[in-house]
Specification:
Elements lengths: L1 E7 L2 E8 L2 E7 L5 E9 L4 E3 L7 E5 L3 H6 L9 E5 L4 E2 L14 E2 L2 E7 L15 E8 L2 E2 H6 L4 H5 L4 E8 L8 E6 L2 E7 L7 H11 L7 E3 L14 E6 L3 E6 L2
Parallel strand pairs: 6-16, 8-13
Antiparallel strand pairs: 1-2, 1-5, 1-13, 2-3, 3-4, 6-7, 9-12, 10-11, 10-16, 11-13, 14-15, 14-17, 17-18
């Protein structure tokens, strides 16, 4: 099931995408979620970020090749940091380059969407707490990442977390193919099996440190191939089985 959040005729709603149509639902997938009799063309709706999380938890250095390309050690346990919810950007909307940075880079990532409150979740029960998966772009001001003592600013500018295009609830995250492109040129290409910590390990670990709420997002880490983005570029982050998250750069 592909669950989209969208705007249509001035109203925001959730729905299920099937082909080129969207069946509108009442409520949200994090509570009472019921189909209505209304369907609309996908081309007639404006897709929004598919969730409004209370927090975005990110996992750093989760691909060894990425850690190597920025001269960082691979951590012994998942490296957690946060992006603010104000960084979220909708599919198709621009990533805005801040004047404070001269080196803004893309980081296409697989994103876990939490389905229910999760605290101290055992690894063997993790799947029960996952609503589905979407695509995230952990846009990073790389120069600020290494001049600041922590990563809040470099990761947290407005529009620095595009999410979408929807939540795929039946996604097979084992061995998923991730690819990111700038103006059609492939910059990142990796499989989720390359991650140092897998989906189950990550969600269980995060839940042992912070309580996860319904709708929260965990970005599972960036593959190698991070690349500078500039005004006028068109960025696409694709995960086979989910779709394509596309954003221009402004």
């Amino acid at each position: 099931m592909r669950i989209a959040r969208f705007q249509h005729e001035g109203k925001v709603a959730f729905g299920v995408v099937a082909g080129d149509r969207v069946q509108v639902y009442s409520g949200s997938p994090f509570g009472d979620f019921q189909p209505t009799q209304l369907t609309v063309a996908l081309s007639e709706v404006e897709l929004l970020a598919p969730t409004q999380p209370s927090k975005i938890v990110c996992i750093g250095m989760n691909y060894s090749a990425h850690a190597a390309e920025i001269a960082q050690d691979v951590p012994d346990e998942p490296l957690m940091f946060f992006k603010p919810s104000s960084a979220i950007q909708d599919p198709g909307k621009p990533i805005e380059l801040p004047w404070q940075s001269e080196q803004v880079e893309l980081e296409g990532e697989m994103a876990i969407v939490v389905g229910k409150t999760a605290k101290n979740v055992p690894i063997e029960q993790v799947d029960d707490y996952i609503l589905g998966f979407t695509i995230g772009n952990d846009v990073t001001a790389r120069d600020l990442q290494f001049t600041d003592l922590q990563w809040a600013r470099s990761k947290g500018f407005d529009t620095f977390c595009p999410l979408g295009p929807w939540i795929e609830t039946e996604f097979d995250y084992e061995g998923a193919l991730l690819e990111a492109r700038i103006n059609g040129q492939v910059r990142q290409h990796a499989f989720s099996t390359d991650m140092n910590f897998g989906v189950r390990e990550i969600l269980s670990y995060v839940s042992q440190n912070v309580t996860l709420n319904p709708g929260d997002v965990i970005l599972t880490g960036s593959p190698a191939g991070i690349s500078k983005i500039e005004k006028g570029d068109f960025v696409e982050c694709e995960i086979k089985g989910i779709g394509v998250l596309a954003n221009p750069v402004a």
